[in-house]
Amino acid sequence: MNPIGGSLARILRRRLPAASALLAVLLDLMPLPDAAPERLFPLLTPMVAFHWALRRPDLFTPFTFLLVGLVFDAAGGLPLGTSGLALLAACALVHGRERTLLAQPPLLLWGGFALFLAVFEAVRWAIASAWHDFEPRPLIPVLGEYLVTVLVQPLLVPLLAPLERLVECPRHATGSR
């Protein structure tokens, strides 16, 4: 096997969680045909971030949360740092509790995502309100987006399972995989 090609493939596999989150950012910001402001769509970015934070925290670090959030803000025309700080705040809920959360039944894990998303949405809403001269932003769109995202999350996250198989397995202390 070519050591250069093998190293490149390994690097690409290790970047797959971040790349999938950046793809989610693009999908979240993509204009949809005949989209109207009254229509609600789930937020994919926090779904993907939560998934990788639990499954591969070694590859989806707090820096990755911040980077993905900054890209979201820059591409979406939001104040820089809004989504990055919101993702970092939500990340704090999960960090160090990955095994405990993954050991829970699916319904409790879904509840964990609902809490993660609530923190994400609350921090984004608070920063947006502060940005606009401390005038509270409307809550109804945020609550609608929250509910749609929580309801759709169990249907969309299994689509990440094939990516999990592509990501490099962590090495054990024995050197085996």
Topology, please?
Blueprint: H1 3-29, H2 44-55, H3 62-76, H4 82-94, H5 98-102, H6 106-131, H7 140-156, H8 161-166
Helix pairs in contact: 1-2, 1-3, 3-4, 4-6, 6-7
Explained architecture:
The protein is an all-alpha fold and 177 residues long. The protein has one domain. Helices cover 68% and strands 0% of the residues. The chain is built from eight helices and no strands. It has helices at residues 3-29, 44-55, 62-76, 82-94, 98-102, 106-131, 140-156, 161-166. Helix 1 (3-29) runs antiparallel to helix 2 and helix 4 (82-94) packs antiparallel against helix 6 (106-131). The protein is globular and about 50 Å long. Residues 171-177 have low confidence and may be disordered.
Concise synopsis of the structure shown:
The chain is an all-alpha fold and 177 residues long.
- Determine the number of helices (DSSP H or I, runs of at least 4 residues): 8
Helical content, roughly? 55-70%
Let me know the average pLDDT.
Answer: 86
Sheet of most strands: none
The end-to-end distance, rounded to whole angstroms, is 18 Å
Rg to the nearest angstrom? Answer: 17 Å
State the total count of DSSP E strands: 0
Beta content: under 5%
Helix-strand topology string:
HHHHHHHH
Global geometry = globular
Salient structural properties:
single chain; 177 residues; mainly alpha; 8 helices; 0% strand; globular; disordered C terminus
